[in-house]
């Protein structure tokens, strides 16, 4: 509860992703570890503590929301079509290590995440770990 409130206090963009991850992690843990008998009680506890954490953070988030409604960007519209600014082949080619990093213009520097993507395959194929650990480990 307080961790969610602290994440929302410190940066509400990060807090949004913490909330999304908490829901995904809770669903995965419910499928593999929580017995059906205690599922309603734990789900109610998860909902109550999440709402309490969000309520604690609302002290800061509601004034911020109302302040942002007075800015110029409130009139912007969300795009309706998905468009990519760069060719997807060039983006994946930039995943290769030893690529010259870009500083101000160009494609994003993506080489830092390649090792985790490369090692996810052997981790999921390894029979030593239980299925639950492999499925949860690849999401987190």
Detailed description of the structure:
This protein is 62% helix and 0% strand. It is mainly α and 140 residues long. It is flat, with a radius of gyration of 21 Å.
Helix and strand sequence: HHHHHH
- Count the beta strands: 0
Overall geometry comes to flat
User: Fraction of residues in helices?
Assistant: 55-70%
Distance between the termini: 20 Å
Mean pLDDT: 78
- How many helix segments? 6
> Roughly how many Å is the radius of gyration?
21 Å
User: In this structure, how is the largest beta sheet organized?
Assistant: none
Strand content: under 5%
The SS-based structural class is mainly alpha
Report low-confidence residues grouped into runs of 5 or more. Answer: none
Question: How do the strands and helices of this protein lay out in sequence?
Answer:
Layout: H1 2-10, H2 12-32, H3 39-68, H4 88-93, H5 114-125, H6 131-139
Helix pairs in contact: 1-2, 1-3, 2-3, 5-6
Tell me briefly what this model is.
The chain is mainly alpha-helical. The chain is built from six helices and no strands.
């Amino acid at each position: 509860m307080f961790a969610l409130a602290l994440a929302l206090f410190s940066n509400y963009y990060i807090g949004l992703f913490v909330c999304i991850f908490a829901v995904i992690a809770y669903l995965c843990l419910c499928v593999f570890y929580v017995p059906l008998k205690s599922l309603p009680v734990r789900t109610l506890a998860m909902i109550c503590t999440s709402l309490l954490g969000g309520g604690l953070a609302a002290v800061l988030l509601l004034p911020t929301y109302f302040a942002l409604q007075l800015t110029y960007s409130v009139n912007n519209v969300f795009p309706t079509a998905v468009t990519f600014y760069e060719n997807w082949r060039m983006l994946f080619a930039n995943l290769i290590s030893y690529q010259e990093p870009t500083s101000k213009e160009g494609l994003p520097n993506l080489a830092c995440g390649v090792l985790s993507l490369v090692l996810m395959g052997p981790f999921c194929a390894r029979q030593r770990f239980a299925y639950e650990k492999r499925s949860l480990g690849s999401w987190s």
